[in-house]
Specification:
Blueprint (H helix, E strand, L loop, with lengths): L4 H4 L3 H9 L4 H8 L4 E2 H7 L5 H13 L3 E6 L5 E6 L1 H4 L2 H14 L4
Antiparallel strand pairs: 1-3, 2-3
Length: about 110
């Protein structure tokens, strides 16, 4: 049986990066900060992500209780994604990353 990421290290930064450190994770969370989105809305909102990677990242975010996946029993099936309270708590972190990026990556 594999250990959870919380059993591997006591460093809060390492645990946080393990939890939300995927290449597309912050972008997905940022898009969902604007409200609930369907899969195709998310896919169209994120330049450069492919369907397979979006599915993988969404599953990981759902497992880590960052997003909620709501499935509606209708034809065709309707699936929506939204942030949990835990996910919404990342808004300040994302805002600071955005501000840092504007300040220090403008010349890149």
């Amino acid at each position: 049986m594999s250990k959870s990421i919380f059993e591997k290290t006591q460093c809060p930064i390492t645990r946080t990066i393990d939890l939300i450190g995927g290449k597309w994770t912050f972008t997905i969370i940022y898009v969902l900060m604007g409200g609930t989105k369907r899969f195709k809305e998310l896919e169209r909102s994120i330049d450069g992500i492919n369907t397979r990677m979006l599915v993988k990242e969404l599953k990981m975010l759902e497992q880590n209780d960052i997003i909620i996946r709501t499935v509606y029993a209708e034809v065709p099936p309707k699936v929506e994604y939204s942030l949990t309270e835990k996910g919404k708590a990342l808004e300040g972190v994302l805002t600071e990353l955005k501000n840092w990026g504007k300040k220090f990556t403008a010349d890149l």
